[in-house]
Design brief:
With 554 residues, this protein is mainly α. It folds into four domains: 11-116, no CATH class; 165-346, no CATH class; 362-436, no CATH class; 449-549, no CATH class. 62% of the residues lie in helices and 4% in strands. It contains 25 helices and four strands. It has helices spanning 11-24, 27-38, 87-99, 104-110, 123-138, 166-179, 187-197, 208-230, 240-261, 265-283, 293-303, 308-324, 329-346, 348-352, 367-375, 379-396, 399-416, 419-432, 438-448, 451-460, 471-477, 483-494, 499-518, 522-535, 540-548, and strands at residues 43-48, 52-59, 62-69, 77-78. The chain has a four-stranded antiparallel beta sheet, covered by helices on one side. A hairpin with a 7-residue loop joins strand 3 and strand 4 (77-78). Helix 6 (166-179) packs across helix 8. It is elongated. The N and C termini lie far apart (108 Å).
Length: 554
């Protein structure tokens, strides 16, 4: 009986498929195909009528399309052009079996289709692994090839061995490390590996809450694998952001189910506290991280039922980390964690009082609060954090930080302020962000057409208007407002009593000449220059520069 997805997997089907496969591909081809499958090259697998399985394998600039006909394997095809069977076909065979919950490696090992210890990979596979290892060595990070041999999996956790302490949760993760030590691309393949190697361990557990807790820890471990691998994966078929978003969705769905199912608040507190401890271990000591571990950490603690003792324990753990690390990313993240503990314990007003002390990399580590309170429309808490961060950005930040804060302030203001109050409060908010917010504030004034305030802002911070993007608009709409600016700068440079100062003054005088011309006030310009030349008649160098600049009134 041939293999058919819609029919039971029996011993007879297994024997017949193994016999067909042994004649379909030589051992070396089979080994290479298994390694392609293990490294996650097979994508977009799809069944047709239960006997035909199609998929693609993107490699470099090529995108091989494979169709496996389980009714009669010689009918199978691959677009790589190799006559007969190829490693791409074997990889797709493995993926097809995997999609049907067949224990692929047990099947391969049992029927001797590939070496238990693994034969040396083909040249192309060797090159791929070498390139990955080379990247990891450059950044001093060890990396393991994805499942390099077909070793037996380690013993899985059992339901009777449930954790009651933080170390019990760590035991789970040590077991995860043994059963699935590395990440593989693409994300769809990786999630199948997570399900096959880790999630199914708890499939037959009777306690649904324990199963969900176990799943949450599995997804945290998956985050760890993905995060570490992204730093030295040269061959990435999916974007990092998409991969992490997929994992985050799975993790959040599991948390929601766990929170809704657990009726014992003490038990839920213990479960979430254990997850928080693991997040602290995975995310607090790693600088090159694509995962926002602090966001996950804060999200978990926000779900935790009000439990003062849990906060006290976590603060003690964080203090130990802070005291033991003089200057490291681990210490910075522990300080950020402490900020959140203070917020949970005493509220945002108390937490923001410590932010300046923990200000190491700008406001971005605190954006999680702004995002969360914006989504929940908790305008009071959002306002507290915005006021705190705006004060620090004004002293230590840059324009990009100002635009970021403004993107959170505007929706809050639109929801809480009347239209006649919006502009007034916007100006107050922008003024609090000066001097870092100089250009964003100038942009706001231009949009409102408040050219006088725009000019005054430049004068207050000693900025030349003609060096700003909005100068042409102001010159066209309100040139008279610019006259005092260039009168001032011209006079200041003349008073330096140096030739290079006179040359700068001439540049400003030429700008004045143009502005008077726009205003059709030639007589005023002539009167101004005559008075200036009379006042500084003894400054011969200035008189020479005026003549060279063709600024003597006619």
């Amino acid at each position: 009986m041939n293999f058919d997805r819609n029919k039971p997997w029996t011993e007879e089907v297994e024997r017949n498929l193994a016999k067909q496969l042994s004649g379909f591909a030589v051992r070396q081809i089979f080994q290479e195909g298994v390694q392609l499958f293990q490294t996650g090259y097979v994508q977009d697998g799809e069944w047709d009528n239960g006997i035909t399985y199609s998929a693609r394998l993107p490699q470099g600039t090529s995108n091989y399309k494979v169709s496996i006909h389980f009714g009669f394997l010689p009918f199978s095809r691959c677009s790589c052009g190799i006559k007969g069977s190829c490693a791409h076909m074997i990889a797709v065979v493995c993926d097809a079996l995997f999609s049907c919950d067949v224990p692929v490696f047990v099947f391969i090992r049992k029927h001797g289709l590939a070496s238990v210890e693994g034969t040396p990979p083909s040249t192309s596979v060797q090159q791929q692994l070498a390139a990955t290892i080379e990247v990891s060595q450059k950044i001093d990070m060890p990396i393991k090839p994805a499942n390099p041999t077909l070793a037996e999996p380690q013993a899985a956790p059992v339901e009777s061995d449930l954790p009651t302490t933080w170390d019990g949760y760590r035991k789970w993760h040590r077991q995860f490390e043994k059963n699935m030590p590395s990440y593989s691309q693409p994300i769809a393949q990786f999630i199948k590996w997570v399900d096959h190697n880790l999630l199914r361990t708890s499939l037959n557990w009777a306690d649904e809450e324990r199963k969900l807790l176990f799943s949450a820890h599995v997804w945290l471990y998956a985050f760890k694998l993905a995060d570490r691998s992204f730093n030295h994966q040269r061959y990435a078929f999916d974007s990092i952001g998409t991969n992490l978003q997929t994992l985050l969705q799975e993790f959040n769905k599991t948390l929601i189910k766990l929170s809704s199912l657990t009726r014992d608040s003490g038990r839920l507190a213990q479960d979430l506290e254990g997850l928080c401890a693991i997040v602290g271990e995975y995310g607090f000591d790693y600088s090159r991280s694509y995962v926002d571990w602090m966001d996950i950490y804060r999200g978990l603690w926000s779900r935790l039922p009000a439990e003062p003792h849990a906060i006290i324990r976590e603060k003690a753990r964080l203090l130990e980390m802070i005291d033991s690390q003089v200057d490291s990313i681990r210490r910075v993240k522990a300080l950020l964690g402490m900020t959140h503990m203070i917020q949970l314990e005493k509220g945002p007003e108390a937490a923001t009082a410590y932010v300046e002390e923990y200000w190491h990399s700008g406001p971005s580590p605190f954006y999680g609060y702004l995002i969360a309170y914006s989504r929940s429309e908790n305008w009071r808490y959002l306002s507290i954090w915005l006021n705190c961060l705006s004060q620090l950005v004004s002293k230590y930040g840059h324009e990009g930080d100002v635009y970021d804060l403004l993107s959170f302030w505007e929706p809050m203001a639109e929801a809480t302020l009347s239209s006649d109050k919006f502009i007034e409060h916007l100006e107050m908010f922008m003024e609090n962000l000066l001097p870092a917010g100089f250009q964003p504030y100038a942009d706001v004034l231009l949009k409102r057409g408040d050219f006088k305030r725009w000019v005054d802002l430049h004068l207050a911070y000693d900025k030349l208007p003609d060096e700003s993007d909005g100068y042409a608009l102001v010159e066209r709409k309100a040139p008279e407002l610019l006259l005092p600016v260039y009168h001032r700068y011209a006079a200041e440079w003349i008073e330096t009593r140096k030739r290079d100062g006179y040359q700068y003054a001439i540049a400003h005088l030429k700008r004045l000449q143009k502005l008077y011309g726009k205003l059709k006030q030639q007589e005023s310009w002539n009167a101004y220059m005559n008075k200036l030349l009379e006042r500084y008649s003894r400054l011969k160098a200035l008189q020479e520069e005026v003549r060279k600049g063709h600024l003597v009134p006619k």
